[in-house]
Design a protein that fits this description.
Length: 717
């Protein structure tokens, strides 16, 4: 059983234990307070529920060693807080409840409905113990779903108060104590008639008990409500707020604040005067798109799907002018995986204001990294990218030979319509047998994609824009791309067609068809023919992949692919460490209650930033405690993979800009702080980012004057 499954079992056991404790307490109260002759069935059910609660609670404790073996962060608060919180009341309930219920099963309640002296105290002790165990079990669930792995001390105080208050309310409501009436000083008055009034002393006691119970209940309600209001106010504080500059907490000591912090707008990089300038113009617009299949949908585009392909060579200056024609939500351009200067990163509310309809902005930066990348809006990106505001970006190295056929394939889901490139059907490219082919795969979706290349052996030449050292030939394996990830695949064109399919675009296929060197048919003609009648263009190619092939074909593991690079230095032992625990808790996000995606128990913008100084090296451990993958994407930086689940890479060094952390996985990464700025670090399942899974990487002495929300309408996710 893997860690993700263990976490799911632990959650089921926690819910089962809480329900069983509550039911056991209720049955104990109802069955033993009955004035009628004893009915052992109710007591038997109470005993059964109590046993089930004890077993479920103990089973949770038995899982802890396995969770800790995966990582301490899978069981941190479960061990230090939840274990003592639930174990003590559970032991009390078992020791007090089982003997009492067994005794009541054998004797039944007295005919008067009252238990005298010691027996009454035993009943009270047993019932309150089960109420305490039930309240603690519910508090343990609150720890999981509300407080998270890094609970603040005041939240623990609130939690313990609510548990104690529940027990106190049960005591006041179920077991009132009345003082024995004093001996009469005079001859007793005539007895009150049936239905007469209660003695003055007893009446005062009832009123006091009711007042005390109301006071405890009111205080508990106010505490819970006040905590909720406090959390709501904190989530709303981002609206119109400016990102504060880091001031030197990253080394464990607080240095003096920077007198004149550097604004992000000044971090534009150095551009050579005599460089070739590649100028592009992109216009964001709303339009109605009709796909090759005949399906149509409303979209937001940069003029096409995907947007115009942008290309450059190393050393050239990119100059891209963005205009917004009519996209009311606003747009930006973020260069995914490209380590641009901070001012060019294109994040609304962090490095710029969103470009609203009728406005424009020009991005200028040096093409300093070769490889396959992509661009997309970073303003309300969960909706904007999904609707079509994305495009491809490729930088070539002029000193290296280029493939004879170079194909860029962006996989995307457009309102349920799976695309490979611009088509939801067939796209055909021609290649001469024996020539070199490079296929650049880009996952522009928010969910992982798996690709199947059929018809030839291939090599994975690059991952996230970084070349793989000595890649080996692969055949019969899938390529898995997390959201935002890229892979470059190379092969020598065979005599027969090669097909590329994706599990996220069932009706789409990219065909690389053999052609003779002197063929006169244009590639556009081949594509049009294939789109209209693919079975005529390539009769042997089925319209869809074989059923189940994506479920049964193994996936290539990049940690053990390629060859190590000799002389690669080991990471220094004195690097700073940061831990990011990815989880889900109930949170307010921009004032709206959600079952949010959290980092270290908080939702953006309340997630503490990672603060660095230029030149720092940080070891980042990412722990995924959820049931979904999280492709974590640090802007402006690539990270070196040190290990996954404790296993170090044995192949080519793996440098990533999007780390796809699967459920129950732990990744250790090395980040070199060599690009000053204020950078987003977020899950590239953009819906997760919009629901809280974002944070900032902040350099000392850098500030941003851009605001989140407010009059600017900036939405950085």
């Amino acid at each position: 059983m893997n860690i993700s499954q263990l976490l799911a079992v632990d959650l089921v056991l926690a819910i089962l234990a809480a329900g069983a404790w509550m039911a056991a307490a209720w049955m104990a109260i109802s069955s033993t307070a009955d004035r009628r002759p004893a009915k052992p069935r109710g007591v038997d059910l109470a005993l059964l529920l109590l046993g089930l609660a004890v077993v479920a609670t103990a089973a949770r404790y038995a899982l802890l060693p396995a969770l800790v073996a995966g990582s301490w962060w899978f069981a941190s608060e479960r061990t230090t807080i939840s274990l003592p919180l639930t174990a003590i009341p559970a032991a009390w309930a078992a020791m007090a409840g089982v003997p009492y219920l067994l005794r009541r099963r054998n004797t039944g309640p007295p005919r008067s409905g009252k238990l005298p002296g010691r027996a009454g105290r035993t009943q009270e002790w047993a019932v309150l113990a089960m109420v305490s165990a039930a309240a603690s079990a519910i508090a343990s669930l609150a720890l999981t779903f509300v407080l998270g792995p890094f609970p603040a001390p005041w939240t623990l105080v609130v939690l313990l108060f609510l548990v104690a208050g529940t027990v106190m309310l049960a005591r006041l409501a179920l077991f009132p104590r009345f003082p024995r009436p004093p001996a009469p000083a005079a001859p007793a008055a005539p007895a009150a008639p049936p239905g007469g009034t209660v003695s003055p002393g007893r009446g005062r006691m009832v009123r006091r008990r009711t007042t005390a119970a109301a006071a405890v209940a009111g205080l508990m309600a106010c505490t819970a409500l006040g905590s909720g209001v406090f959390a709501w106010l904190g989530s709303r504080s981002a609206d119109g707020a400016v990102i504060a500059a880091a001031i030197g907490h990253h080394r464990g000591v607080t240095t003096a604040p920077v007198v004149a912090p550097t604004p992000v707008t000044s971090l534009v990089g150095d551009l050579p005067d005599n460089a070739v300038v590649r100028h592009y113009e992109l216009t964001a617009r709303t339009e109605h798109i009709t796909l090759p299949s005949g399906e149509s949908t409303d979209a937001w585009t940069f003029g096409s799907l995907p947007g115009p392909g942008i290309e450059a060579q190393l050393g050239e200056v990119m100059e891209v002018e963005l205009r917004n024609q009519d996209v009311g939500a606003g747009v930006t351009l973020h260069w995914h995986g490209y380590d641009v200067p901070n001012a060019m990163d294109g994040v609304a509310g962090a490095t710029q204001d969103a470009v609203m309809p009728g406005q424009s902005m020009t991005y200028r930066f040096l093409a300093a990294q070769a490889g396959t990348y992509w661009y997309h809006t970073h303003q309300d990106s969960a909706e904007g990218v999904r609707k079509g505001l994305y495009g491809t970006f490729v930088v070539h190295n002029p000193t290296l030979p280029r493939a004879d056929t170079d194909i860029v394939v962006a996989g995307h889901d457009l309102d349920g319509l799976g695309l490979l490139g611009s088509s939801d059907r067939s796209t055909v490219h021609a290649a001469v047998p024996g020539s070199s082919v490079r296929v650049r795969l880009i996952n522009t979706d928010s969910l992982p994609q798996r690709y199947l290349l059929d018809g030839t052996a291939f090599k994975v030449a690059a991952v996230d824009g970084t070349e793989v050292n000595q890649p080996q030939e692969v055949k019969g394996k899938l390529l898995r791309l997390g959201a935002g990830g890229r892979m470059d695949v190379t092969f020598t064109m065979p005599e027969s067609a090669v097909t590329l399919r994706s599990d996220s675009a069932a009706s789409a296929v990219v065909v690389v068809a053999p052609s003779s060197p002197d063929a006169t048919m244009k590639e556009a003609d081949i594509t049009e023919k294939a789109v209209g009648a693919p079975e005529k263009a390539e009769p042997g190619i089925p319209e869809k992949a074989e059923p189940g092939i994506f479920a049964t074909t193994p996936v290539l593991d990049l940690l053990h692919y390629g060859e190590p690079v000799a002389g690669t230095p080991a990471p220094a032992e004195n690097v700073r460490e940061e831990v990011l625990v990815l989880d889900r808790q109930f949170r307010f996000v921009d004032g709206i209650p959600r079952y949010a995606f959290t980092v270290n128990g908080a939702a953006y913008p309340l997630v503490p930033s990672i603060e660095v100084a230029e030149g720092d090296t940080v070891k980042v451990t990412i722990v995924n405690r959820t049931a979904e993958p999280h492709p974590m994407h640090p802007h402006g930086h690539h990270v070196q993979v040190l290990s996954r689940n404790g296993v170090a890479p044995s192949g080519s060094p793996l440098m990533l800009d999007t780390v796809d952390v699967l459920p129950g996985e732990v990744w250790e990464l090395l980040l070199h702080a060599d690009n000053p700025g204020i950078w987003m670090d977020h899950c590239h399942n953009l819906d997760h980012a919009a629901e809280g899974m974002m944070m900032l990487l902040k350099y000392e002495g850098v500030s941003s004057g851009f605001v989140h929300g407010g009059h600017s309408h900036n939405r950085p996710e």
